[in-house]
């Protein structure tokens, strides 16, 4: 689907540079190649810019070269729109599905994305830079003005060691699938709470599920709540999208 | 995530053959290659079978060959579990994302999947057989006993010409993004209706959105209801998963 673009600008570009009235924005080699080589833009052409901090700005090309270029900001078209304070923690799976989870988390409005290594996670490392680029691309495509930070892979047990109990954890336990559907009741109850219901994190397990020790530890945490995602077993990437959707509807900015 | 398998059987296989006590099930070349070549199973080994009609059966290998084989059914491990009477209609997009939509619809419990050609759909044809295979694989992976039918591509206008008004349409209109969030209210209202709320179809548009004519026609249909999926613009594949999730929670079998 096409983003809510200014009618005169066909391209939306993320830049890691301050944006403001009259601000000049240099382009690096890749950006210049994309804008002038691939997208055939030239001097004077309008482009929408965002940097994840200063909202969205209508800019125009002031210098177009093969390896560099420059834009100048004209007017702010949208303010920065922050997503709710929701983290997505997930155990990396196969490459395409991990990419997909990051893209969908950025689209659906997670504030921070934390790949975690659980007892049954096969991945030893991730390409953080590549995943961050996926989050940027998702924001470019989908009209977002914010880009969630993708953290480097960390061990779930260590992350939980230092956990701030003020951030509640929605723990998607595939062991509950087919059990009594606790989920709708949970979301309806929570939905009745005051709108500003504080920070949350969604936790999605790996293909092998959580270990008994992990499950026991999470169940003992007062801030953690296990839910089931319906009667069918969902793949981890499906579970991530479903949980983000349900949280946004019940507690986030889809209300 | 691992499906709810019998502890003795590691493999779940879809077969297009009747299943029942003592029933012999011949394997075709591809199935024999997968089961005996790739998965290294042999005579006597247990396998779970389903065919989308007769539930799930524990079977064992009676003949294992390079190009053929045979299984015999022992006991039914689960009855057929039908999803709710929900169709997913979507405009095909890029290959990987179309595959993804079919996979997710099968996982999340759609009964039928209908690729539709809208005014702004680029695809002229689809590989129906390949998409059907994706639905089968999703059911194999996710413990489903039902496989949704994937229809061949048809024109949306013709489909609507013959539409049975008893099947309501949930029409995800990206033009509403950022507008008043009609969605939660819609789902809460509908959630209060009697449990058996009849057949539905979710309709997801292509990247370019619906045409004005399509939008006007859908808005004039008494059985159709337009909703917004939150304040951010979602890609078509994300919109499909989000809409399926919300429908299952409000009206389907996640209640």
From TrEMBL, chains A, B:
Q: Which residues form the Ribosomal RNA small subunit methyltransferase E methyltransferase domain?
A: 84-248
GO molecular function term, any single one: rRNA (uridine-N3-)-methyltransferase activity
Signal peptide interval: none
Report the CDD domains cross-referenced here: RsmE-like
| UniProt keyword annotations, A-Z | Cytoplasm, Methyltransferase, rRNA processing, S-adenosyl-L-methionine, Transferase
Domain Ribosomal RNA small subunit methyltransferase E PUA-like, by residue range, is 27-68
Main subcellular localisation = cytoplasm
The UniProt catalytic activity note for this protein reads: uridine(1498) in 16S rRNA + S-adenosyl-L-methionine = N(3)-methyluridine(1498) in 16S rRNA + S-adenosyl-L-homocysteine + H(+)
Supply the EC number(s).
Answer: 2.1.1.193
The record's Gene Ontology cellular component field reads:
cytoplasm
By its UniProt entry, which InterPro entries does this protein fall under? Alpha/beta_knot_MTases, PUA-like_sf, RsmE, RsmE_MTase_dom, RsmE_PUA-like, tRNA_m1G_MTases_N
Instruction: Write out the GO biological process terms.
Output: rRNA base methylation
Q: Where in the cell is it found?
A: Cytoplasm
Question: Sorted alphabetically, which PANTHER family does this protein's record hold?
Answer: 16S RRNA (URACIL(1498)-N(3))-METHYLTRANSFERASE, RIBOSOMAL RNA SMALL SUBUNIT METHYLTRANSFERASE E
Family designation: Belongs to the RNA methyltransferase RsmE family.
**Function summary:** Specifically methylates the N3 position of the uracil ring of uridine 1498 (m3U1498) in 16S rRNA. Acts on the fully assembled 30S ribosomal subunit.
Protein's name according to its UniProt entry: Ribosomal RNA small subunit methyltransferase E
Source species, please?
Lutimaribacter pacificus
